[in-house]
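Problem 12. The chain below contains 295 residues. Write out its predicted structure in token notation.
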Amino acid sequence: MKVLITGGNGQLGRCLQDELKAQNIIFFAPPRAALDVQSDASLTAAFEQFQPTVVINAAAYTAVDKAESDQQTAFAVNSDAVAALSLLCVQHDIPLYHVSTDYVFDGNSPARYVETSKTNPMSIYGQSKLAGESHFIASGVKGLIIRTSWLYSEYGNNFFKTMLRLAETREELTVVTDQIGVPTYARDLAKFLLHLIVNCQLSPSKLPIVHFCNNGVASWYDFAFDIMQQHKPEVSVRPISTLEYPTPARRPAASVMSNVKASKEFGFTNRHWRLALQECHTKFSQISAIQTDVG
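Solution.
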């Protein structure tokens, strides 16, 4: 097995590298400068150079608010690149595992979203990711679309890291309490992706989509509160409404996804987001200690 990872230097890409190394699986995770997903020539060259047997697309334009004023780039990365990758994988007869988002939903459902739930993205980011899903399905490529939510880790830029940074200079943080979802540890998503490519035999499906998020439910306030309890409990976290914190992009009010399919059809045992957060905090502390020692 030879795994090509696009977006290899992002938080999910780095978690994937850790998990693949632990399993002694050969992988190629070039930096953006060496593999530009917006360039068909760059993608083609990567396939020719590495000759992968499976591709994981972890590359994404994830700046939700910035996408509202940078639609061209958002669609180039989240939609056009998926079309190009899908075509290359079809040509080479290899599976593609493409990571998508809960933001393809509008957040108005009283129940958890399942894979067949109606999509209705409220933002350019969500629209671009849904367009990427459409290209994937239309191509007939083997593989899966994996929708996830509120991804964070000890790597890269994410909500977890932002809260820790803000806590260094503030005594109080204000965080919205009326947006509900599921925080998902990128390392757990990486483990699920590895489980899929190593242990699961894919059968043809009219809807090649699976939802993956940690167990439980949270608001952004809940998530921030737990982060601070583990990291810096003396910093208070105050709940506010979305109306008190306007942003360029509209976000779903309740984008809680069901992960029953991941468990029942693919046999993956998941864990509660609070347990995952504890591990993330431990990993972050270990990295910080190493950096301090080196410094």
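Discussion. DSSP finds nine helices and twelve strands in the chain. Students who got a different answer should revisit the alignment rule from Section 12.3.
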